[in-house]
Amino acid sequence: MKVVVDAFGGDNAPLEIVEGALLALKKHKGLELILCGKEDKIKEILKGRTERVEIVNADDVITNEDVPTEAIRHKPNSSLVVAYDILKTRDDVIGLVSAGSTGAVLAGAIMKIGRIKGISRPALAPILPTKKGSDVIIIDSGANIDCKPVNLLHFALMGSAYYSIIYNVKEPRVALLNNGVEEEKGNELAKETYPLLKNAPINFIGNKEGGDFMSGDVDVMVTDGFAGNALLKGTEGAVGAVISILKQSIKSHFLSKIGYLFMKQTFKDIKNRVDILSKHGGSPLLGCKKLVVKNHGSCKRNNILSSIEQTIVLHENHLNQKIEEAIDKLNTQVD
Fold this sequence. Notes:
There is one protein chain. By secondary structure, the protein is α/β, with parallel strands linked by helices. Helices cover 50% and strands 16% of the residues. It contains twelve helices and twelve strands. The chain has helices spanning 15-27, 39-46, 68-74, 79-89, 102-113, 149-167, 188-198, 225-252, 254-274, 277-280, 301-316, 319-334; strands at residues 2-6, 32-37, 53-57, 93-98, 123-124, 127-129, 135-139, 173-177, 203-208, 220-222, 283-286, 291-294. A seven-stranded mixed sheet has the order 3-2-1-4-12-11-5, with helices on both faces. A five-stranded mixed sheet has the order 6-7-10-8-9. Helix 3 crosses helix 5, helix 4 (79-89) packs parallel to helix 5 and helix 6 packs across helix 12.
């Protein structure tokens, strides 16, 4: 089992990426990794720890300032493009992990790997915690800004299949993000999508508002990439603001500092719960012919470890096959 890693993608590359890869190798004895990037730098970090590691040199790097499609075309020796070429041409490689430019990862997946037959567009599906202790995924969270109803239908099918694998839930609860719960609510996209989801082979529970998606009553929140990204970034910002306010308040009062000593473990538990990436890695780009996991640009070694483990789990549980089966079932209903 081999996974290819873009060793120079992300704010903390290559050190955190390579160290995360080594953590994965230590935990999974049957795993082999291919690290793409500047060979001398990678070897410097490895310090001889090269067992089950293949290094493929790539002297160039795609940055967030590059235009994604142009970078994929005109930077063939970049770590990401080299990684995609390996993923495309080698049957023994099950997936790719990158913390690089989101736009470039998306463009590379479409241009180099292609979509599963029947899927109109691939989509990102990050995981967030809920107040009931469960998790929820948002699909799409930014891969597709302008969507059609059929795109959201396919997002729902893919998100349901993904959630069922990660959490061993037979029929995840799928909702459509809207500005009201009534069936007739929403813009034209939401109104046209609702009946498609209602008749799809999924457990569709109707419309849900933005404030409901972390309630614990939804497993898969379906939306277009524009609204999904705004929801995700707004939530991350709100959580960060609350934590910052809490820290400032604790520091400003002597008794609060004393109380913090007794609640230190509680705050640690909250931090671990919010840091969902440490548990599940990055966001899979669902709908591609091979597995692609996009990690946050600021991720650290434990996040890379989780992303590699996430790739293994999705491969072993045949995610793409289940997406294909869902599309076949949908087509059978239509026929």
